[in-house]
Write a structure and sequence with these properties.
Bound molecules: pyridoxal-5'-phosphate
Radius of gyration: 23 Å
CATH topology of the largest domain: TIM Barrel
CATH superfamily of the largest domain: Alanine racemase
Number of strands: 21
Helix content: 25-40%
CATH class of the largest domain: Alpha Beta
Distance between the termini: 47 Å
Number of helices: 13
Largest sheet: 9 strands, mixed
Strand content: 15-25%
Length: 442
């Protein structure tokens, strides 16, 4: 594997250290693991498991920290939350209410953002494969910005603008040819990746866009990848963007904003991470004095630490080298370990004597060897029926879930202070086949 994504093995950070580094998590002497003011055991008792639980306060405080970092760096910036990280309406409503817009990558996400009450002018449409229908619907909804990924897409959009008589505010997405140093499956800014337009083609394409009737170029965009844990790739790609912006200004082309994408990484294993202040420093160095508005498209950084996945130990199976702790949550609920070798903290919910007694392989029930959440993880003794929380699963968790092995989609809940609410019931079994049709000739 490649880059700095933490592997399934190799991190000895203990449950106590994981809890200590997460402000909304605590361990109560009687109630066990708490998220804000709510004992997670109470949610598990009522909704069963697997269940995703999100902390509203974590979302609010992280959004506020991003805004504060931009202000401290004296930057004019706006947030366009990357909906694909977690598209639940309650999360979109909460972030939209704080002032966030949305970065969407499909018509479904566009509709979700609108249904959640995010104003169309605060919506950015990204993605390499927007269909003509999707572009037409985006024009009809009068969204704020369409990020163009290719010459061909600009041609399609221009034709649609002509047909529909609706103007389009566009940004050209630059491929800065920078390696984000992240897992190969989530790096997007290298020349060989499918995303964006090579920097060398930007000046002429931007001039062409400005000359097209109904196309209003507002600036440039980039997004170099996800779970980026070092500032160097941000600095390099922002320098490319600033250079291009200066060139466009010098050519008297209109440019009002730079969309700097998402990608800010989170410390899943308490590793050092740049955070919003580091990012704002890099933005300031590249763009201060240019007189442009900045857009940020964070997904993971805002929502990953706000969520956890509650699961129950089904069985502890003895293994040749160490025990297997088999959970009722699997790769169908949380794909990240199987897909990206992602490391997630796993913390017992009940009060335990705390100290890990030895390594275990934590696995799910799915009939795939990739259904493995952690290898040789130091954990306290766990017994069937015990509950655990898989931490930092608010991003790219539930949105990637499937009902593989005919396992219904997990329930979801949100806490805020001492309140909590179920925000999605567990999928009933009959929903699994409700829309299936058996031809009458069978
Ligand atoms: C996925 C994506 C994001 C969000 O990435 P995170 O790593 O979750 O912050 C932002 N912009 C675009 C264009 C994306 O595709």
């Amino acid at each position: 594997m490649h880059g700095s994504s933490p592997p399934l093995t190799g991190s000895d950070v203990s449950p106590a250290e994981l809890i200590a580094a997460r402000p909304q998590l605590s361990r109560h002497a009687l109630d066990g693991l708490m998220l804000e003011g709510v004992p997670l055991a109470a949610i598990a008792a009522e909704l069963g498991t697997p269940t995703y639980v999100y902390s509203a306060e974590t979302l609010r405080s992280r959004y506020a920290a991003l805004i504060a970092a931009l202000a401290a760096a004296d930057l004019e910036g706006q947030i366009r939350y990357a909906v694909k990280a977690n598209d639940h309406l309650a999360i979109l409503r909460l972030l939209g209410g704080l002032g966030a817009g949305a970065d969407v990558v499909s018509e479904g996400e566009l509709l979700r953002a609108l249904v959640a009450g995010i104003p169309a002018e605060r919506i950015v449409f990204s993605g390499v494969g927007k269909s003509r229908d999707e572009l037409a619907h985006a024009l009809e909804a009068r969204i704020g910005q369409i990020n163009i990924e290719s010459t061909e897409e600009l041609d399609d959009l221009s034709e649609l603008v002509g047909h529909l008589g609706r103007a389009a505010r566009v940004a050209l997405r630059v491929n800065p040819d920078v390696d984000a140093g992240t897992h190969a499956k989530i790096t997007t800014g290298r020349a060989q990746d499918k995303f964006g337009i090579p920097a060398g083609l930007i000046p002429s394409l931007y001039a062409r866009a400005a000359a097209l009737p109904g196309i209003i170029p507002v600036g440039l965009a980039l997004h170099i990848g996800s779970q980026v844990l070092s500032l160097a790739p941000f600095r390099k790609s922002f320098a490319v963007l600033a250079g291009l912006a200066r060139g466009l200004r010098a050519a008297n082309l209109p440019l009002e904003r730079l969309d700097c994408g998402g990608g800010l990484g989170v410390p899943y294993a308490n590793e050092p991470a740049p955070g919003p202040n580091g990012l704002a420093g890099a933005l300031g160095r590249a763009f201060r004095g240019l007189g442009v508005e900045l857009l940020l498209e964070p997904g993971r950084w805002l929502v990953a630490p706000a969520g956890l996945l509650l699961a129950t130990v089904v069985r502890v199976k003895s293994g040749r080298e160490r025990p297997f702790v088999v959970l009722d949550a699997g790769m169908n609920d949380l794909m990240r370990p199987a897909l990206y070798d992602a490391w997630h903290g796993i913390v017992p919910v009940a009060v335990t004597d705390g100290e890990p007694i030895g390594g275990a392989d934590v696995v799910g029930p799915i009939c795939e060897s990739a259904d493995l959440f952690a290898r040789n993880r130091p954990l306290p003794r766990l017994c069937p029926g015990d509950r655990v929380a898989v931490l930092d699963t608010g991003a790219y968790g539930r949105v990637m879930a499937s009902s593989y092995n005919a396992r219904p989609l997990a329930a979801e809940a949100m806490v805020s202070g001492e309140r909590w609410a179920m925000i999605r019931p567990r999928q009933p079994f009959q929903d699994l086949w409700a829309k299936e049709r058996v031809p009458d000739w069978l």
